[in-house]
Amino acid sequence: MTEQTARLTAALADRYRIERELGAGGMATVYLAEDLKHHRPVAIKVLRPDLASAIGPGRFLREIEIAARLQHPHILAVYDSGEADGLLYYVMPFVEGESLGSRLAREGALAVPDAVRILGEVADALAYAHQRGLVHRDIKPDNILLSGQHALVADFGIARAVHDAGGDRLTQTGMALGTPAYMAPEQAAGEAVDHRADLYALGIVAYQTLAGELPFRGHTAQQLVAAHLTEVPEPITRFRPSLPPALAAVVMRCLEKHPADRVQSAGDLLQQLQAAITPAAGTPPVRAEARGRPLSTRRVVVLFAVAAVAVLGAVYGLMIGLGLPSWVFPAAAGLMAVGLPILVTTSRLEQRRHPGAAAAGPLGLFTWRRAIVGGGLAFAGLGTAVAIYMAMRLLGIGPVGTLVASGVLEEHPRVILADFTDRSGDSTLAAAVTEAFRVDLGQSASLTLVQAGALDEAFRRMEQTRPATLSTELAREVAVREGIRAVVAGEINDIAGSYVVSAQVLSAETGEVLAPARETASDSTDIIRAVDRLSRRIRERIGESLRAIRAAPALEQVTTSSLPALRKYSQGYRAAAAGELSLAVQLYQEAIDLDTTFAAAYRGIAVSYSNIGINRARVAEANAAAFRHRDRLTEPERLWTEGTYYMQLRDLDRALPAYLALVELDSTNARALNNLGIVYLFQRQNEKALEYYQRAFALTPQNQPTAFNVVATSVDLGRLDEARAARDRFAAVQPNHPGNDANRFLIAIGERRFDSAEAAVASVAARHVPARDALVAQFHLKLAAIQGKTSGMEQALRDGEARAREGREVAEYLRDVAQAAVYDVEVRSRPQDGLARVDRALAAFPLSRLEPFDRPYAELAEFYARVGRPAQARQMLAEFDREVPAILHPQVEPAIGRARAYILLAEGKPREALDELARADRDMCRVCVMPPMAQAWEALGEPDSALALLQRTVDTPDDDRLNVDWLELPGIYSRLGAMYEARGNRDRALEYNGKFLDLWKAADPQFAPVINQVRERQRRLTAERP
User: Fold this and answer.
1) Confidence at 327, pLDDT banded by 50, 70, 90
2) Second-level CATH architecture of 936-1026
3) 190 torsion bin: left (phi>0), alpha (psi -120 to 50), beta (else)
4) Is 113's pLDDT higher than 60?
5) Exposure of 71 by Cβ count < 10 A (0-12 exposed, 13-18 middle, 19+ buried)?
């Protein structure tokens, strides 16, 4: 029995017998009790002590008294309330049924009649309360109890009582007023609310009850609040298409952002719910036509028109649904046009004939029977022609056979697009046409257009730099080297104000024209549409299904309708390919100025800034803008944009479906497979991450980032043999690639062979690549520090300072300084040296000179906490909150969370530190939170828990572990040796003492006292061994 239960039992012993605790939530704990006076079961809710303290008993109980006056069949009554031994409580009937939340969790979406009945009863209860000036403020499925066939709204008035009585003091308890998933936008924004906030919450409940899904989802309360404020919910019919339209409309109206746009009262909502499922009045019967009467010509024409619409509609539907050739519809229309005069003539002749008379002579051919049979035969002939055409196309026979079906190209062929040749005298026009054609070809799921990154790799293997313009001849040469069979080339001509755009599929090996196509644009405004038509013809000839081609959105929709904007975009694309990233950003922005919905240009800005390595806020803003306009992208690009945006927010549950959909579109998409691996790695599903990395690596064994990911994740899983196999396979394909050093380094760290790791870093340094200088210095620093070689660490810091004084890698230098200062505190036991080191660095390189996101706030806050200055650490985190845009916070939240934990440890709050570390433990590094967790457990007097965590720290494979080991591993080895000795486990004590002595076998003399102490322990243990 808990302390609170004991207090409550004693205080209420004369009125209630407490039987058991039913559950606890964010606001209260609920107990089942017996009312001793009336011998009935009741539920007693006891407010959290911190919440009760913030509110005060007087004001709270006055508000409960108001709620207790509610008398309605669908509102759970309040029997009693009061204060007992300092505990605030109120008493309600005990309902033996379940909550709506429990039923939804068990069954999912409810049948429409059940759902409308429950929602109607809740609306009726709300109408009653709203008429009396009471707003619930926390309508959700868990507050709707189901008793028999009826609904009861619980806790009515409690949220109002908490709000009105608690005021701003509630922020001290950490409690939100309302549940984020069901919170109206005005409530989420902290604005004044009225009864329409309850209607919004009931709309969320209705959506969940009918669709089985919430309209807004997120990992955190902040994400949910942002969704309520900014996102438009998916129509409920997307999840349940069979809903009556009127009912769907009522639900969606309740979810309007502005209160004035919602249903305005609960009474109105009740009426609209009932009306939405009331069957419409029956339709009047149709009078049958009299028989035996000849059809008039006018009536024949009317009936023919109706039949023509039906037949042509069916033909069009078959053409789209089955992917039939586009000439089918005009052929069917032609047959119908021929049939009309035949039917009119037949009608007139039939009216002149006497009943029972035989048709004779040439005019005797015009009978209803012959007309109907003839029409049937004509359409049968059309069907036969279509079947023969489709068979020839699919079997690769004759001129209609596709290149894939005929065996000229393989299934799902890879294709290189050469730059279009300009014959118009305007080179920017040819570049714009090339990019438009690239976008349209990229929509195809039946071919793989070789992207810029793959071309760069191919040219690197040819020991060349990719030229700004890829000519047809050079494209063919690359294709032959890469085993690609086809190249697409084209040109644009200006002929008397109109434009002719042509394209050809060429054999890479022979240059033979495999499939030509040509389209004409009446003027410059028609060029994008002409490119769209041209691309679709080429895709059709290669082998894409006609249905898929027709289903693809128009090129204008997935790029831009503005040719000037497309010109600027294509210039930006080429500038980026040439490495002129700042110019690329400028040109992309000019394209956006011409078309503010040009999503591809926003993506170009994001990629360019990311590659420059500056202005992370601008990267995030550009990704968010591309996301807002993602309907202007091809399906693959839209999915890329969604995946990128959600990963930026670390919303893994939404990023995952985007990348899965990309792989569903194209199972050979190595980039999508690689990004899926990244998502699974963030989710700590390392086995699945490795599976997708290996699939990507099998497709592109020459790709260094993918090879690196396979090696790193294999190390993460402790599968060093698989890591070595991936390292060797990449080295066989790319023997001179600098990525080989990175792979060797990872495996050496996984094996804790620091001498081999140093050799790999030295090999990278010998290549003299300026962009890698900071990384090389960081590894030199950490490899020296972990082995107790402080002279090497100091040399790495001096090298970093020299680069910083040249204006290079200043942020990286300050980050290294902050971490070296922690080493001064924790390993060298020289806190003043650490403080002096940081003070000197910040004086020379103030944080204000750096982009806010690049400032090492987390590292500095952690240092100040560990040196015993938690107030200064909190100032750092406060500055982080002020200066770094909120959209970037999710990317560094784990590091910020660890810094908060160290602050709490410094403030003597180990329990709160553990809670913070649990929240921070969600990035790819699995060992990063373990050392501070061990420290917290020791502070709580739980040495066994500390020992277990230290043991897990050294046992857990992690490719990121150098970032922990360099600072923690020597101390952990020494500490484990001492702890095992204290527990009488000599073998484990000897093992870890030995590991410590081996690790520091070449350490600096300053560490001699520590080393001698461990040697003495080792000597004593060895002497004691039986």
Assistant:
1) confident
2) Alpha Horseshoe (1.25)
3) left
4) yes
5) exposed
Q: Which amino acid is at 221?
A: A
State the Cα–Cα distance between residues 383 and 385, nearest whole angstrom: 5
Return d(Cα 222, Cα 242) in angstroms, integer. 33
Phi, psi of 417 (to 5 degrees): -100, 120
Distance between CA 647 and CA 664 in Å, rounded? 19
Find where tokens 């109907």 sit.
372
- At 917, list the tokens: 């570390």
pLDDT tens per residue across span 848-881 = 999 998 999 999 999 999 999 999 999 999 999 9
Q: Report CA torsion sign: 734, 735, 737, 743.
A: positive
What residues form DSSP beta bridges with 29? 24, 46
Residue bearing tokens 């103030």: 846
H helix runs in 155-244, sequence order: 158-166, 185-188, 195-211, 221-230
Are the C-beta atoms of 587 and 572 separated by less than 8 Å? yes
- Six token digits for residue 701: 């064994």
Query: For residue 489, which phi and psi values (nearest 5 degrees)?
Result: -130, 160
Rounded Cα distance between 747 and 758, Å, is 12
Question: How is residue 573 written in tokens?
Answer: 């694309």
CATH number of 414-559: 3.40.50.10070
Residue with tokens 């080792």: 1018
Q: What is the pTM of this model?
A: 0.60
Q: Which amino acid does the sequence have at 405? A: A
Q: Report how far apart the first and last C-alpha atoms of the chain are (Å, whole number).
A: 49
Closest CA to 643 of 592, 678, 685: 678
Instruction: Name the phi and psi angles at 360, rounded to 5.
Output: -135, 160
**Spatial distance between the Cα atoms of 480 and 506, rounded to a whole number of angstroms:** 12
Where exactly does CATH 3.40.50.10070 map onto the chain?
414-559
> Is 944 a catalytic site residue?
no
C-alpha 692/C-alpha 677 separation (Å) is 5
Quote the pLDDT of residue 166: 47
| Distance of alpha carbon 783 from alpha carbon 765, whole angstroms | 14
Residue ranges of the chain assigned to CATH 1.25.40.10: 568-633
Quote the tokens at residue 97.
């049924």
Compute the Cα dihedral for 818, 821, 826, 832 and give only its sign. Answer: negative
Give residue for tokens 């999915």.
639
Reading the block at residue 201, the tokens are 């919450």
The enclosing H or E element of 779 equals helix 773-786
Rounded CA-CA distance 603/591 in Å is: 12
For residue 766, what are its two tokens?
A: 């010998």
Catalytic residue among 35, 124, 138, 532: 138
Q: Could you tell me the two tokens for 263?
A: 């249903």
Contact present, 948 and 972 (Cβ < 8 Å): no
Strand runs (DSSP E) across 12-120, as ranges?
16-24, 28-35, 40-47, 80-84, 87-93, 98-99
Instruction: Give the model confidence (pLDDT) of 400-451 as tens digits.
Output: 788 888 888 888 899 999 999 998 888 789 989 998 998 888 888 788 888 8
Mapped onto helix, strand or coil, the DSSP state of residue 399 is helix
CA distance 630 to 622: 12
Q: Using CA atoms, how far apart are residues 136 and 122, in angstroms rounded to an integer?
A: 11
From the candidate CATH numbers 1.25.40.10, 1.10.1270.20, 2.60.40.2550, 1.10.10.10, the one assigned to the domain spanning 568-633 = 1.25.40.10
Highest mean pLDDT among 80-89, 374-383, 573-582, 920-929: 80-89
